[in-house]
Amino acid sequence: MNAPMNPPPIAAVRSRLAAAPAQLFIDGAYVDAADGATLAVEDPATGETIAHASSAGPLDIDRAVRAARSAFEGGPWSRMSPNERSKLLWKLADAIDAAGDELATIETLDNGMPYGIARHAAVPMASESLRYYAGWPTKLGGETLPVSAEGEWHAYTLRQPVGVVGAISAWNFPLSMACGKLAPAMAAGCTVVLKPAEQTPLGVAQLGRLAQEVGIPDGVINVVAGLGSVAGQALVDHPLVNKISFTGSTATGKAILAASARDLKRVTLELGGKSPCVIFADADLERAIEGAAMGVFFNSGQICVARSRLFVHRKVFDRVVEGVAGFVRNLKVGNGFEPSSMLGPLVSRAQLDRVAGYVELGTAEGAELVAGGRRLGETGYFVEPTLLAGTSPDMRVMREEIFGPVVCAVPFDDDDLQLIAARANDTEFGLAASIWTRDLGTAHRMARRIDAGQIEVNGGLPMQFALPFGGFKQSGIGRENGREGIEAFTELKTVTMRL
Ligand code: NAP
Ligand code: MG
Which protein residue has the closest C-alpha to ligand 1 atom 12? Predict the structure, then answer.
């Protein structure tokens, strides 16, 4: 994956972004918001405004939803054969890869993530989700089923697209998260209105141009940046939207679920986490230490699956804590365009204050600050990765999602797996978990006992679109990726006929 990189076209991209606001993309055309509203977009490495984006209001959302509705109903998308839809999804993936240098540069400017991650992880994730789901339109179908009734009957199911999808996403992986919703929705035959996060609208805004370039019919993809409370809310409230696919905080997810009750919109929620990493005494400690550190510090901790609670067997606790602290001291934090930067800035001032607030709170509650914890520099939103020890289960730093580079380390003495799992499960969340051990029995027993959607043993994979992804408990409802991910954009219809 790590092919040599071209230098990022920073100057060219910056001047293009500064020249004109990133407009809304509705019904195949770039347009201003009806009321002319815009959002200022910051580079989190400097805090400077680098661009503006049109900010959709209810009128714009209504136009976008109606465009998606007519592209869906009797429009070109629903009439297109499955293999034609496959080809267009694949072409969109190729167009994203072809624009990879530019898109990755935008993602780094907009979100702050290191350019290597943008170029080698974020952009490929966007195109790979489209390629994975490009294989599905020709394979998605119903079944013929037996009937136990008098007479002769024919019974079968049809899997049909749910309709117009409102896709609302977070700022941590803007482009890949948008494509991760677009791909299965389009593969299922749905049309989409995408609402990216207000902090990071710039990369997703490019999707309109790329969709046009490859010949995706007007109205199939609409992109409407804007505020969650305005544009997001209008999408959730719109009666012509059939399904909301949401990634974001648990609080917003709950509000969306409540609002969806009005007309029983279908809802998939990918929400927050407080995921555990459990290291047993027999683990390969060198790999476990690196895994534990990168499991929480990758992308400066702004990952929903961050392993922010680290449980380590007492026998190896000191070695692991020293190891993670050493790893932290070697993690270079800096501007995402510096090739040596392993971690970029946090996305915003608000996020920086949030992380600083939790570090302060943790130490005030009695935690020991083992490493990190300070803001770096006065410009931009850089913070040291932070390791807290001496944390107890009732502390807020152990219970609440920080969504930043902060990990709480806790020793355990028990050998009873039920008790260890109970500590790992002592959270309202259930998104992911890591287990480090050389004992196969321990690994599989723990995998059964931890309540989480993703369990990794002895290391993690990059995002795999074939594998279902989602949360237990307050980490969400439903699954993205895999068969479940596309079925979530369908309705199942049963047809019976007397012969
Ligand atoms: P957030 O505040 O909930 O925002 C997420 C999205 O929802 C944004 O586009 C936001 O718009 C929009 N929104 C806000 N209020 C809304 C409303 N009333 N109606 C409709 N849409 C609304 O989340 P965040 O703080 O940006 O993102 C971080 C969170 O996302 C963390 O909790 C993280 O764990 C979670 N996350 C989960 C996953 C996963 O797959 N499980 C992946 C990544 C992130 P604005 O931008 O204007 O606020
Ligand atoms: Mg930004």
Answer: 228
Q: Which atom of ligand 1 is nearest the CA belonging to 249?
A: 32
Query: Could you tell me the pLDDT band of residue 78, with boundaries at 50, 70 and 90?
Result: confident
Amino acid code (one letter) for 371: A
Report, as an integer, the average pLDDT of 305-323: 98
Is residue 484 annotated as part of the catalytic site, yes or no? Answer: no
Q: What's the pTM?
A: 0.97
- Flag the least confident range among 72-86, 105-119, 288-302: 72-86
Phi, psi (rounded to 5 degrees) for 348: -155, 165
Residue of 42, 107, 198, 270 with catalytic role: 270
Can you list the alpha helix ranges (DSSP code H) found in 382-497?
A: 396-399, 417-424, 440-449, 482-487
Tell me how far the alpha carbon of residue 282 is from its chain's centroid: 33
Choose one of 179, 195, 227, 252 to mutate for the ligand 1 pocket test, by most ligand atoms within 8 angstroms of C-beta: 252
Cα 266–Cα 267–Cα 270 angle in degrees, nearest 5 = 160
Rounded mean pLDDT, 360-389: 97
398, 392 Cβ separation under 8 angstroms: yes
**153/300 Cα distance (integer angstroms):** 59
- pLDDT given for residue 3 in this prediction: 58
- 304: annotated active-site residue: yes
Q: Which atom of ligand 1 is nearest to the CA of 306?
A: 34
Which ligand is nearest to the Cα of residue 17, counting in written order? 2
The mean pLDDT value for 90-118 works out to 98
Instruction: Please say whether the beta carbons of 27 and 219 come within 8 A.
Output: yes
- In the set 190, 304, 401, 480, the catalytic residue is 304
Distance, CA 394 to ligand 2 centroid (Å)? Answer: 34
